[in-house]
Amino acid sequence: MRVKALTAQERAGVGAVCERFIAETLKPQFLPEIRPTSFNYPIDIFGKWRGNKFSFITRYRSGFPENAGEEFDTAYTRLDHVEEHVGDVRFHVMWHRHTGQWFRLHASVTLDEALSLIKSEGLLWPL
């Protein structure tokens, strides 16, 4: 079987498109301002590559008195590069379940299709 790994240039291009999507679509819709609470509250949305997977991540800050100000990250959606697809760059759209496992919602879609799915499907939203 032939496989096609992402080149550094392709990774950079996908990362730039995803970061623009986060800045122009996700942050204005889901995090227009930071609202501190006495619980954990979101302070940022960003993306990060890990191997051939690009994760969409929410950073939270604790408002609990015993650990006020501590921060942690939680991935909520992931794009897994499909290496078996040699024609063009395709991804599986993954959803992070409450059990901690990743579940594939959509298979072998283009980057534009994946971002459209993230924008329209509530399961793939950050908060």
Features:
127 residues; alpha+beta; 5 strands; 26% helix; 36% strand
- Summarize the biggest pleated sheet: 5 strands, antiparallel
Mean pLDDT comes to 92
Low-confidence segments: none
Structural class determined from secondary elements: alpha+beta
| H-E order | HEEEEEH
Shape: elongated
How many helices? The count is 2
Measure the end-to-end span: 39 Å
Order of the strands making up the biggest sheet? 1-2-3-4-5
Count every beta strand, where a strand is a DSSP E run of 2 or more residues: 5
Helix percentage range: 25-40%
Number of domains: 1
What value does the Rg take, in angstroms? Answer: 16 Å
Kindly estimate the percentage of residues that lie in beta strands according to DSSP.
35-45%
Explain this structure to me?
With 127 residues, the chain is α+β, with helices and mostly antiparallel strands. It has one domain (8-124). The protein has two helices and five strands. It has helices at residues 8-30, 111-120; strands at residues 40-50, 53-62, 71-81, 91-96, 102-109. A five-stranded antiparallel β-sheet has the order 1-2-3-4-5. The radius of gyration is 16 Å and the shape is elongated.
